[in-house]
Amino acid sequence: MSEAALLDSVLGLPVHLMDDYTSWLRSRLKQEIGTHVITLNAEMTMQAEQHNALAQAIRQAELVIPDGAGIVLYMLLRGKRIQRCPGIELAELLLDSIGQTPTSYPVFFYGGSPGVAVQAAENWQQRSPHLQIVGTEHGYLSATEVEKLKQTLQEIQPKLILVGLGVPRQELWIAQNRHLCPQATWIGVGGSFDIWAGVKSRAPAWLGNNHLEWLYRLYQEPWRWRRMSALPKFAGKALVSRLTQV
User: Fold this and answer.
1) Residues in Cβ contact with 38 at an 8 Å cutoff, skipping those fewer than 6 apart
2) With b meaning 16 or more CB within 10 Å and e meaning fewer, what string describes 48-63?
3) What's the predicted TM-score (pTM) here?
4) pLDDT tens across 159-209, in order?
5) 191 contact partners, CB below 8 Å, separation of at least 6
């Protein structure tokens, strides 16, 4: 990490704190240094307690950002005020940034339902005509199609690869396959393609500002209630951590 970065931890998992993640990633892209970006939230943290491979992927990532409100509140309980960095916003800032530079940074979108990544890419091209999106693929591929995708990535060598397969699948897929494009920046972007494609919308700003974006997402996707049951468990562990200062 750069000198401006601070390394902290949330329930034993690393989190990197800095003022400008976008500039740091731009520097890595320019230097062609491979990077795996993890967007850490409370749900992922709790999954990692039960999933060793996910925990290992998080610990080995070059950049772990505080994506969720739960991570911010955890740090606040420990007396540290940090700024939340939603993964979708970091990805957008990076796409906007490289779309305005004369240097070519080929981009690949992988994930989402059939047609979603394509529409997301088309919308981004309208928004940023100089952005070089060299390929898209949906997240419902057969085993044979996945192997073909791997071959394609190895051949075209994108420099920024956004993977929207959901947690923990996207983190594990990146960790297992980043060797295909060793100089690329890989970011797990969850449901960002749905939002960029116009299929879904983000929560109103006032909900996000009050750490309630998760509630809006639950409203849009009621099936997530089982996964979000991890949130009170995380809150309990955060309180215990505060009391014991682990």
Assistant:
1) 44, 57, 58, 61, 63, 64, 65, 171, 188
2) bbebeebbebbeebbb
3) 0.88
4) 999 999 999 999 999 999 999 999 999 999 999 999 999 998 775 665 555
5) 112, 164, 166, 200
